[in-house]
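Follow-up to my post from last week.
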Amino acid sequence: MTAQSDQTTANADRIIISVDAMGGDNGPSAVVAGIAKSADKNPQVGFILHGPEETLRPLVDKRDVLSGRVRYCDTPDVVSMEDKPSHVMRNGKGTSMWSALESVRNGEAQGAVSCGNTGALMALSVIRLRKLPGVNRPAIAILFPSTNPQNFNVMLDVGADIRADARDLLQYALMGASYARNGLNLKRPRIGLLNVGTEEHKGRSELKEAHGLIAQFTDQADFDFVGFVEGSDISGNKADVIVTDGFTGNVAIKTGEGTASLIGALLRQAFEYSILSRLASVLAISSLDRLKKRIDPRRVNGGVFLGLNGTVVKSHGSADATGVSAAVKLAFKLAQSGFAERLAARVASTVELTQDAVELADPVPEHQKEGQA
Amino acid sequence: MTAQSDQTTANADRIIISVDAMGGDNGPSAVVAGIAKSADKNPQVGFILHGPEETLRPLVDKRDVLSGRVRYCDTPDVVSMEDKPSHVMRNGKGTSMWSALESVRNGEAQGAVSCGNTGALMALSVIRLRKLPGVNRPAIAILFPSTNPQNFNVMLDVGADIRADARDLLQYALMGASYARNGLNLKRPRIGLLNVGTEEHKGRSELKEAHGLIAQFTDQADFDFVGFVEGSDISGNKADVIVTDGFTGNVAIKTGEGTASLIGALLRQAFEYSILSRLASVLAISSLDRLKKRIDPRRVNGGVFLGLNGTVVKSHGSADATGVSAAVKLAFKLAQSGFAERLAARVASTVELTQDAVELADPVPEHQKEGQA
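User reply:
Got it. Predicted complex:
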């Protein structure tokens, strides 16, 4: 499956993002509107668009800004939100999602973006791009609005895997630190391990073990470890990277989203209460718009898959043009900074140390060590 | 440890709430201010106050409304926030927390309230009040602001135990339904099981098992089961009771609190931005106050311990007078409705059915069944 070139030469100096045009809740028109938005803002970005070409071409042709910046990869099938990852892994070869990853795998694109089924995208990413050596479970990292100077914390994993043992959590800390360094320009990110309390005796056993492991890596991996943090610290200024398993992380981001939208709804109600409050709301529009812009999930749309050979950004399924454009921007920024290579180098440099640390924390019987040596 | 009577006769017709005056972040003065607030609003409430009498009496004497409505139970020791539950279980006999539970145990009070260390309070509650027959793990239930007609959803467990198996989750569903019926006046509450997606194949194995168990009880226990719900539904209108393990539930409520306080801080910033926005904020004050009141965690302060012989309300450690008063109100309301007895009856009526359901879901070998019979 090689992308059919339209005007390849024009794209020569551009960073190419591979975009799965199908599978989002708002269909390919939202995706094409999103990449048009990105193309308008950023002359350095080009696209390979995956999906049925007869559907996509008319949408692209309507937008002058995309002229000469899109290559098509004609794929008949679509992964639906209901498809089980295991099914897609076996039967997904003709889908736009599979094809979008293929362009990263064969080096034609420097990153992939999809609004589709998260589980299927992660499963396909693992089998097509492969995990980095030393990474057991890849993770999805997102940016969560916070009171930090950089306005966001990184949180991972938010749903790649519902389980994580102590060693996985250590890998998440290392990968999250790399992401914070490249994505948020933090020199020495502060790592926090999510738990139900900050006291060291609290929580599940794998968390206590991970606490010990992560603490050993602060110098080699160039981060600070602030120890256990709580749910309230996800939006706080105590840590820059929140490390947790994918079940807890997924519930936490959705709880945060739900709370924000509840407050938004109540705010509207409150302002509709009386004539005076309606007047106030008119005067307050620009203030409220500033607030909305600051926490608008569409503007930081994109979960990044960490721990793979290549950059994959999962956009929200319900993303509109603004959301898709934010996901493209993130993929572009990471490609431009050489993030995938840096992360791979960082993980490689710690693989042996990780092994040592795990053995220190959980000693292997002597005879087994001899066998390994 | 029997409460020393001041003016017992005056309290004869009142519902007596046993209050641990110590161990909160704001000390006994906040607790006394809180019970004074309750006493002022509700002529039917009386108190047994636990802590060093020489500290408490001057605080109480300053408030006329408490005259004749407080009995003292002089206890020298205090459980601190740092004390490990296991330590308190062995050495806690002289503490105000132990004593506060004792008044419920011996029938002198119809409910207990404490702002102290949650882990210690739960551990002491289990050893002093004992679990209801058929309950394996007691749970802490809280009210979470939502878009429901009743303005709140019940969520449990939010931190009694970091683990829960399928059978525990079923018990939480039964207890949560009882609480929603008595605490929120819902005839047929809708139960949702918290997961990372709504599809039946998603999530951990104990969740899939619990899904099957809970579905079997909709008729006997008089609730609707809406199946899996996500983090965003905690503040939504899809379910009235959100069932989860104590680790996930604890992270979720703290994430919700953190998100709400982030938005509050950003709202203030947004309104301070310009002269126009400051003017808007003056006009908007009453709207914002309405919003604040609606989601103010102090006004629904109180985690209820479910699954014990007696009602215990855990107030937030940092509760001020308003928060303590809300916790007292909740304990009073539950005592007045005979909640503890109703819950016990409900659990008792389902113990056998639960056993049958579990056996159906996970058959016990025949020879073991014979041994049990």
